[in-house]
Fold these 2 entries.
Entry 1:
Amino acid sequence: MIPGPTNVSDRVMNAMISPIISHRSSDFHQLYSEIAEGAQQVFETTDDTVVLTSSGTGAIEASVVNLVRPGDEVIVPVFGEFGQRLSESIELAGGKPILIEAPLGEAPTIDSIEEAFEKHKGAKAVYVVCNETSTGVRIPWLKHIGELASKYGTLFVADAVSYLGGDELPVEQWGVDLCVTCSQKCLAAPPGLSLLSVSKKARKFIEENPPMSKFFDLSNYIRFYERKKETPFTPSLPLYRAIHEAILLVLEEGMERRIQRHKTCANAFYQGFKALGLKPLVEEEIRSNTVIAIRYPQNIDDKRFRKMLDEEFRITVAGGFGDLAGKIFRVGCMGEISSHHVLATLSAVASVLKLQGETVNIDEALRITTDHLRPLKSLQQPLST
Ligand SMILES: Cc1ncc(COP(=O)(O)O)c(C=O)c1O
């Protein structure tokens, strides 16, 4: 139950048990075409999509080296670990990050973001972590940021690594020029692949200003796909099989129902934890539907709590990053997430708290959680495992 890698269904795991084929064969052309077309539906765009054999960090770096040139001003809201890493990548590429910072557990206001656009009219791009995995904060103003980017002629890049497939991001409609996600989070495939969508505007810029990178040159990937339905370099074939199956599962369920399932499970988690007397780190307006960050009660020790949860109940959750280490635990609410994951996690957390001396009302928490999971029934999610 960590915020990625997430649980992977048998269907996706089994898809990897197939012969290693030539990546220059017609079998691969078909496989890759189906992935690229499926990815367009996941990103909700008619623009190009690219699959990289790299984890999310590679794709984030690709988004930076393809668009940022020395001296470029880049607006970056920073409200946790992944925004911080993003700003460092921009600096490494010679860009000048314009930081809009917020304390851990909070998000920069849309007014402060708008102010940055107004103050830095020539900014080349805005890079936004949609869902800050380290704090469980989601940005609810992505559509508005897209409108600002369009108004000011700024490229809009979204780090949707722990967001896409679990929350709302119609990439083309909201004007995202580069959207980055990866295999091991809400898409519920094994780690090792990342996916990007590239708008026409971003593609034009990259073609006219090739990046200082061979492996991450996105226009090269797009050209190879257009001409041959191939990747420029050897792809991870088993992972391509896995993402192919994972995308099929997403499309069978439908994006709308999938997002609703994530929201329902997240809400059930928040309500259930509240009933146990636990406090979320994040205010309701900006709290994540995919990463649930919960504060520890005063007398609970992070390591001891997670060790017992892991060893006695076989439920693994994540701790906090940096200043939040020891103060919160984080639960992944992504991908395959369903009522049994929510109830098993909640029951186990309640039991560990009780065993470690807290007074908790398990019965009430289970009743409330079960109530809030009820809408899942009407979503008729397919059984994938
Ligand atoms: C928001 C966000 N961005 C980027 C990354 C980096 O991805 P990876 O660990 O796959 O390199 C992560 C990983 O958790 C993330 O949550």
Note: The pocket of pyridoxal-5'-phosphate is lined by residues 4, 55-57, 60, 82, 129, 133, 159, 161-162, 182 (CB under 6 Å).
Entry 2:
Amino acid sequence: MTKPAHHIFVCGSFRMNGTPQGVCNKAGSLGLMQYLESELSDRGMADVAVSSTGCLKVCDRGPAMVVYPEGWWYGRVDGEDAIDAIIDSIESGSPAADYIIA
Ligand code: FES
């Protein structure tokens, strides 16, 4: 496998014992991850990796995701429209203003 050009980390709210708890998980972040993966596949964006993470410590703005190497932190990613905007941002090279955490 070659290194991905972009990596999206999706807060899965995992705690030290591995149990997913917390704002992002309760708001369905891992369910959105499935849509994210399928949409990336549909768009042929095989150079974008997706991983779930522990709490990203921005719970009050969750569900949260981070895109690297851009360093774009996104909050209130609460549906497919938000996911589409984030994928669009990777394609365009400009952050999705409606969801960016400043
Ligand atoms: S639970 Fe997602 S940022 Fe804390």
Note: The two ends are 33 Å apart (CA to CA).
